[in-house]
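Fill in residues.
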């Protein structure tokens, strides 16, 4: 059973900060060092100081970016830069944006979600995580006693029952209305009437919830809960730390957009590009796309169109540098069934990211267990190509986006996709609302 709850959100105080666009931030995990510096320079109160603080050479156990994050959070609350809502509420969150030449609207709500151990309830992750990233978010949670960003989840609402409740409150003036650096519009309203809150709680009770983004934060929250639970002999499940702030949007929404995540590989030993292309023929039909410096952008777009057309046949774009492009199309799905020895469901075996991992990363490049240090990820094909041309990477793979139905099929089997299989766009904006909790408090509907 999925249990959600209203909570007293914490927000920037608009009486003290007139321009919220200067203090909100993208999520921590997509911020480059250069953009981190830009956010720092933009405002003394930018949320970056809490979710991704600077590290310094003299940092130690007692003075580090986690400690400083807690100090900023406490200081901003004390000086009313951040203020807590008067009473518990559920928060409507709407995003208006453009992607791939089309305009979209995505509507959801933010509430507390009672934590479940993975595989023991109705909360389904879909992606593998890295221990280092989980520990980072855990240490930040320990320092701040706060959920600084929402988990991003989706659920089914075929009859728009929850959406209809939300729209009643969207007739009001939004409490937050801001645009981010990518010109995405973010608006937030408050649902503060008990009957409406109870209606949403009731509708969500029997839903399956799929985590789209925030796997590291969800798993960190579960671990943090277990740490505190072990010290509490009277644990009841109602404890504040047994919940995580989450954003929920219907899977039926046309605004649930998934973009591809491209792979760039570097630091390859004994790598020969000519031999590599020849070896690819064992698994793929390999079609070269000839380009020059002048025609390269046009050729890449042509390759991407071919990639989209061949999506059903498991296709990849490949860039080897020096304007050498190729379209790779899997010869036969039966090859994958032979390569993947694990007892995995068919939906998992036939994911593009699985196919790439087992055929190329494992069999041809011998880096199956070393991808964390050798593979970087880009949502932009142009940036992926630049990493080869300008930063010394060996090659780039351009992918099609993972389909929503593939995500649900894999997660529903309690399996996880390889790391960075999906890129839900746009990301949730950091700094709109946070959940600050006292571990001794209890959560009530």
């Amino acid at each position: 059973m999925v249990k959600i709850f209203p909570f007293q959100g914490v927000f920037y105080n608009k009486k003290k900060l007139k321009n919220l666009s200067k203090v909100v931030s993208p999520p921590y995990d997509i911020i480059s060092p250069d953009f981190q510096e830009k956010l720092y320079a933009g405002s003394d109160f930018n949320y970056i100081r809490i979710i991704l603080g600077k590290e310094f050479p003299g940092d130690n156990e007692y003075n580090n970016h986690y400690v400083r994050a807690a100090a900023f959070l406490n200081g901003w609350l004390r000086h009313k830069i951040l203020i807590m809502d008067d009473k518990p509420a559920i928060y409507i969150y709407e995003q208006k944006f453009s992607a791939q030449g089309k305009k979209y609207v995505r509507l959801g709500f933010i509430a507390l979600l009672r934590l479940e151990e993975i595989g023991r309830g109705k909360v389904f992750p879909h992606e593998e995580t890295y221990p280092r990233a989980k520990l980072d978010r855990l240490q930040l949670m320990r320092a701040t006693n706060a959920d600084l960003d929402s988990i991003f989840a989706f659920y089914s609402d075929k009859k728009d029952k929850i959406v209809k409740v939300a729209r009643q409150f969207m007739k009001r003036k939004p409490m937050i209305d801001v645009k981010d650096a990518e010109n995405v519009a973010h608006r937030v309203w408050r649902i503060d009437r008990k009957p409406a809150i109870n209606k949403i709680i009731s509708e969500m009770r029997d839903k399956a919830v799929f985590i789209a983004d925030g796997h590291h934060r969800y798993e960190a929250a579960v671990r943090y809960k277990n740490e505190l639970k072990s010290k509490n002999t009277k644990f009841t499940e109602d404890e504040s730390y047994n919940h995580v702030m989450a954003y929920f949007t219907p899977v039926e929404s046309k605004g649930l957009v998934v973009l591809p995540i491209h792979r760039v590989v570097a630091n390859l030993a004994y790598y020969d590009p000519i031999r590599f292309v020849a070896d690819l023929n064992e698994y793929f039909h390999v079609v070269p796309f000839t380009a020059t410096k002048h025609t390269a952008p046009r050729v890449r777009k042509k390759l991407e169109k071919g990639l989209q057309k061949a999506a059903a046949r498991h296709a990849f774009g490949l860039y080897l540098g020096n304007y050498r492009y190729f379209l790779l199309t899997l010869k036969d799905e039966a090859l994958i069934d032979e390569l993947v020895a694990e007892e995995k469901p068919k939906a998992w075996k036939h994911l593009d990211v699985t196919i790439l991992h087992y055929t190329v990363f494992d069999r041809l490049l011998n880096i199956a267990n070393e991808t964390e240090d050798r593979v970087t990820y880009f949502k932009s094909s142009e940036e992926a190509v630049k990493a080869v041309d300008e930063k010394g990477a060996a090659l780039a793979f351009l992918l099609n986006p993972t389909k929503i139905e593939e995500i649900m099929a894999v997660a529903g089997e309690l399996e996880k996709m390889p790391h960075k299989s999906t890129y839900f766009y746009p990301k949730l904006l950091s700094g709109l609302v946070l959940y600050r909790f006292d571990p001794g408090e209890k959560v009530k509907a």
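The first helix runs from residue 33 to 42.
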